């Protein structure tokens, strides 16, 4: 997937990027990059006993330990070597911003090579969701999205993705978030990056999140949502992967003319091709697909577009394969777009529901701490 689609006549040239620059240093190898056999092998290659891999995995995924001094079941003389072989430091928190009385926490991380990414923990009475990044930057160039403006720096490794969740799990387990000690119940790939453009690392991360402890975090695949601009071949591949995550498709417009502008990858795969892939995902996995639609005043929020969206989705049947999640636009600095009038938003919901499409408006948790990124929108309705 390296060639760039040809822009249609009369539009600005696209800057879609699928491949990261070559010749970069790779992030440190970490046990979360590997399955159990791979972890043992890595220790063996370093001349260390393979059976220690399981103890290290238990410390990382089950006990959420990050201090080697607490890993007293490892021989003191070998501890440092074992930890640096399988549990190297992956990222450093630079800043944490809080909102909603501390129940929303956004962390800015610096990766080993200086790249910056963000993750957000959102705690609700009945669940705790972590919104993770899958790439430093993004190559998909959606003009309303802050990350899309900066281009792609690089793909994140599986362990760098997983570590964002483990870090959130630690702060919940250690009672650092109001509401008492807790666990991560949901992970959404709605931070920086296009997850399906970093497919192998993202699938690896989903496996680590869902592998039973101590091989992984032991989460339910139902609690994991992968959000995409709509890389059609990758959606089809994901449908066959055997990990029934929830798929969210960032549609944002029901017609090609407007979607070409808002989500430039649409010039390669049309609305019809993209929605068909989403429907195929629902059919294959029996998981309801979520259509993301950022409401932009006077751009995509007209009554006729609500009707068209309903018709497009219903053309694949009304067996409950889909629901629509409207996201009030969080304008990026200098953006020419702004959020919809609440009246227009209500009418949009009404028209979709009149066509039998379940529709929710996403809550805007942590909006006031989204300023720096403008994109890490809070999740789920
Ligand atoms: N690349 C993936 C995931 C990242 S963003 C994707 O596009 O789906 C998660 C969601 O936030 C996407 O639906 C994205 O379109 C939306 N988003 C991006 N910028 C936004 C903004 N300024 N306001 C509201 N939603 C935004």
How does this structure look, described?
Helix content is 31%, strand content 18%. The chain has 381 residues and is α/β, with parallel strands linked by helices. It folds into 2 domains: 31-86, DNA polymerase, domain 1, CATH 1.10.150; 130-173 and 185-363 and 373-380, Alpha-Beta Barrel (TIM Barrel), CATH 3.20.20.70. The strands form 2 sheets. It has a 10-stranded mixed β-sheet with strand order 1-2-3-4-7-8-9-10-11-12, covered by helices on one side. The model is unreliable at 1-13 and 376-381 (pLDDT under 50). Bound molecules: S-adenosyl-L-homocysteine. Residues 140, 142, 144-145, 190, 194, 227-229, 250, 292, 294, 327, 329-330, 332, 374-375, 377 line the site of S-adenosyl-L-homocysteine.
Comma- or semicolon-separated keywords:
binds S-adenosyl-L-homocysteine; two-stranded antiparallel ribbon; TIM Barrel; disordered C terminus; 11 helices; DNA polymerase, domain 1
Indicate the percent of residues in helices.
25-40%
Strand content: 15-25%
Radius of gyration: 21 Å
Mean pLDDT: 91
CATH topology of the largest domain: TIM Barrel
The CATH first-level class of the largest domain comes to Alpha Beta
The gist of it:
With 381 residues, this protein is α/β, with parallel strands linked by helices.
Record the SSE blueprint.
Blueprint: H1 36-45, H2 52-62, H3 76-86, E1 91-99, E2 104-111, E3 116-123, E4 128-131, E5 135-137, H4 146-150, E6 152-155, H5 158-173, E7 186-189, H6 199-210, E8 224-228, H7 232-239, E9 246-250, H8 256-262, H9 271-285, E10 289-295, H10 303-314, E11 322-328, H11 342-354, E12 359-361
Parallel strand pairs: 4-7, 7-8, 8-9, 9-10, 10-11, 11-12
Antiparallel strand pairs: 1-2, 2-3, 3-4, 5-6
């Amino acid at each position: 997937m390296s060639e760039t689609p040809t822009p249609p006549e009369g539009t600005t040239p696209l800057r879609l990027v699928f491949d990261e620059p070559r010749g970069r240093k790779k992030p440190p190898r970490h046990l979360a990059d590997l399955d159990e056999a791979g972890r043992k092998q890595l220790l063996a290659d370093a001349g260390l006993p393979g059976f220690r891999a399981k103890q290290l995995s238990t410390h990382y995924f089950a006990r959420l330990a990050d201090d080697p001094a607490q890993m007293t079941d490892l021989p003191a003389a070998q501890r440092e070597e074992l930890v640096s072989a399988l549990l190297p430091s992956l990222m450093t928190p630079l800043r944490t911003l809080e909102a909603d009385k501390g129940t929303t926490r956004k962390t800015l991380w610096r990766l080993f090579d200086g790249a910056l990414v963000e993750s957000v923990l959102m705690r609700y009475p009945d669940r705790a969701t972590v919104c993770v990044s899958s790439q430093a930057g993004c190559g998909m160039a959606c003009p309303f999205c802050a990350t899309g403006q900066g281009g792609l720096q690089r793909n994140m490794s599986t362990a760098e993705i997983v570590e964002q969740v483990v870090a959130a799990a630690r702060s919940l387990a250690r009672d650092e978030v109001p509401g008492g000690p807790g666990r991560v119940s949901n992970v959404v790939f709605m931070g920086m990056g296009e997850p399906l453009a970093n497919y192998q690392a993202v699938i690896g991360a989903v496996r680590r999140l869902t592998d039973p402890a101590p091989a992984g975090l032991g989460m339910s695949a139902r609690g994991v949502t992968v959000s995409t601009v709509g890389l059609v071949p990758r959606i089809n591949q994901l449908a066959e992967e055997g990990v029934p995550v929830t798929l969210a498709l960032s549609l944002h417009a029901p017609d090609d003319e407007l979607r070409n502008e808002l989500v430039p990858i649409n010039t390669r795969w049309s609305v019809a091709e993209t929605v068909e892939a989403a429907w195929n995902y629902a059919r294959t996995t029996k998981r309801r697909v979520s259509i993301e639609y950022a409401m932009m005043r006077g751009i995509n929020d007209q009554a006729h577009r609500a009707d068209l969206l309903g018709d497009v989705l219903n053309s694949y049947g009304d067996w409950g394969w889909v629901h629509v999640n409207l996201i009030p636009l969080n304008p990026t600095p200098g953006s020419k777009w702004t959020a919809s009038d609440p009246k227009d938003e209500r009418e949009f919901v009404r028209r979709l529901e009149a066509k039998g499409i379940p529709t929710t408006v996403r809550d805007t948790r942590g909006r006031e701490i989204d300023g720096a990124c403008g994109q890490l929108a809070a999740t789920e309705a």
